[in-house]
Structures are given as C-alpha cells and as structure tokens.
Amino acid sequence: MTDIFISYSQPDRDCAFALTSRLEQDGIGCWIAPRDIAPAADWAESIIDAISAARIMILVFSSSSNDSAQVRREVERAVHKQLHILPFRIEEVLPSKSLEYFLSAQHWMDAFSPPREAHYDRLSAYLRTHLLPGAGAPAPKPAPDASGTYAAIAARSALFQAADLRHFELQLAAYIGPLAKHLVKQGATRAASVDDLIGRLAVEIDSDADREQFMRRCRREGSVK
C-alpha cells in the first residue's frame, strides 16, 4: 500500500513534484503521475490502481485543478474508495460546485503565502503526526492489472462475450470517462453473471437517473434475459 496519491493539474506540476520530493525525504511513500506510470501502461488503469492502493490523497488545489475534469474524476474515485482527501491549497480560490460536493467536509491546508517550502514542511509534519504515524520507506508500486483483454476474459469465462464487455465499457465511459475500461475488466473477473456485472458497474455512476439509463442501455443488447 502506498501512503499518498498526489492529484494535481498540469500547470501545477512543479509544485506537485516539489511536494512529493519533500514528503519522500521524510519516508512518506508517494505515487505521482507520470513518474510512476510504467512505460506502455494504460494511463487510466494505472491511476485507478494507484488510488485503490493509497491511504490518503493530497490534492494540489488551485484555479487550474479546480477546472480540471481529470482532477475531478480522481477525487470522485478517492471518495468512492473512502480515501482521506487533504486539499493543499496553493491559490486562494474556492472549489467549484462539482468539487465542493466532495470536498466540503474535508480539512484544508492553505499554502498560498510564500515561501511554499515552509508549507511542504508543515504538511509533512502533519501527515507523520496525525495521519501516518510510523510512516516509513515508500511502499512498492501496485502490480499491473493482469485481467487481460476482453477476448482473454471471454475465453476464460462462459459468462461474457468480448463484444458485450466492450459495449458495457462504451456505455459506462459516457458517464465516468476512460476509467470505464479498467472497471469493466476488473468487474468481469468478479461478477457471477452478466446482470451482476452490470449492477457492479452501475454503482460507479452517481446520478440515479443516469444509473438507470446505463443499465437499460446495457441490457438492450439482449445479453441479459
């Protein structure tokens, strides 16, 4: 298990990497993209695996991350996995409505007054004292997903056809983006039936109306009788 998942938007890259370096100096294991994504690995799968393996998400929060769809998806995933989220606010901005829903109950750490290095020190001390007592060396990175292609999954199971799994991915991606591929592959290795798989995927969608629509579209293909 990794201690920290670092979420940030590209304009804040320098800050995110400086913060990561400071935390790792104190033995706090961090995962940050693209550094910790293996060559040729699927970007979305790597991110969702890293969030699942982390204990805490540090959100480098700024006007840029506030408007980032990718950051919002990472925060949604962290909430779904019940991670503690700690926004590290480097600009004096308030969260957009889409992020406020997930962050309103979180503890914030303001870090917009210079020098920023002092805030890195304060964050590291807070993590080691309150959230990660006994934090040591960085944990090993999670193993790559071994579920294989849809064709490989179908070949190992009498429950699913590759075309159906691809259809489910396309329907789910309309609501949650590229994470859908990984969730379909992961769900297909655990579901007891096609209907069970559709149900497992549906819970990833927040809106009740969207969830029902997703399930209807998946079943329309005739896979579930």
Question: In words, what does this structure look like?
Answer:
This protein is of the alpha/beta class and 225 residues long. The chain has 2 domains: 130 residues, 3-Layer(aba) Sandwich (Rossmann fold), CATH 3.40.50.10140; 70 residues, no CATH class. The chain is 52% helix and 11% strand. It contains 11 helices and 5 strands, in the order βαβαβααβαβαααααα. The chain has a 5-stranded parallel sheet, with helices on both faces. The longest helix has 16 residues. The radius of gyration is 19 Å and the shape is elongated. The chain starts with a strand and ends in a 6-residue tail after the last helix.
What does the overall shape look like?
elongated
Give the N-terminus to C-terminus distance in angstroms: 40 Å
Unreliable stretches: 136-147
Widest β-sheet, arrangement of strands:
2-1-3-4-5
Q: Classify the secondary structure makeup into a structural class.
A: alpha/beta
CATH superfamily of the largest domain: Toll/interleukin-1 receptor homology (TIR) domain
Q: Give, in order, the helices and strands.
A: EHEHEHHEHEHHHHHH
- In DSSP terms, counting alpha (H) and pi (I) runs of 4 or more, how many helices? 11
